[in-house]
Design brief:
two-stranded antiparallel sheet; 212 residues; mainly beta; 6% helix
């Protein structure tokens, strides 16, 4: 007699879907390092971000805890030295202060600067020259439906290419106003720093934490 085997994939799928096991993946040891970002823009004062790094899955996302305080930050230009002091500015999108070291002397064009940071027993140095030639803009366009993590909005698109012989690259930051109607991805952006209006009142209230 010939035997017939019947395979029931649906039943097997249901059986395996009911099995669940949590697997704990141990995190390797992590040694925090420093993160240094600097902006030397002619006709503006120097700005240096000096923070410590944290593990990817760390809950330490408070910018006030990440900034490295009490560091000695200097921008040296020949015989002139600009001592930077810790400052902050409020980011109303995430309702957190962004901390940085800010100078007082205006950055000059086609000038060599040396950055010196002393933090505890460590010293960090870097050198740059503000002689980046102007970039050639290939074209400019406009879009009314540019979409990013903060929602959908209009924007100007600038097309250009970095100069191959240069080690410094171009970066442009555009600030735009946001309010309580702004969305973060697909959900409304909830933050007390954007301000809100009560349905029965025409007045708006704005609250934010204290800075340094």
């Amino acid at each position: 007699m010939k035997k017939i085997f019947i395979i029931l994939p649906v039943a097997i799928t249901i059986l395996f879907s009911n099995c669940q096991k949590d697997i704990i993946v141990p995190q390797p040891p992590y040694n925090s390092r420093v993160s240094i970002q600097g902006l030397m823009e002619p006709d503006s004062v120097p700005v240096i971000y000096f923070n410590k790094t944290v593990p990817y899955f760390s809950n330490s996302t408070n910018t006030a805890d990440l900034v490295i305080r009490s560091a000695t930050v200097k921008i040296i230009n020949g015989s002139s030295t600009d001592v930077l002091t810790l400052d902050s500015t409020l980011n109303r999108i995430n309702c957190k202060y962004i901390y940085f070291y800010k100078g007082t002397q205006t950055v000059q064009w086609n000038t060599t600067y040396k950055l010196s940071i002393i933090s505890g027993s460590e010293t960090y140095t870097a050198t740059t020259t503000t002689a980046v030639p102007p970039v050639i803009i290939d074209s400019v366009s406009y879009t009314s439906t540019f979409k990013d993590i903060y929602g959908e909005h209009e924007g100007v698109i600038v097309y250009f290419r970095d100069i191959p012989s240069q080690t410094n690259y171009y970066r442009y930051e555009m600030l735009r106003p946001v309010d309580a109607t702004t969305k973060f991805r697909e959900s409304p952006l909830v933050t007390p720093c954007l301000g809100y209006c009560l349905p029965t009142s025409i007045s708006c209230a704005i609250s934010h934490p204290s800075s340094i």
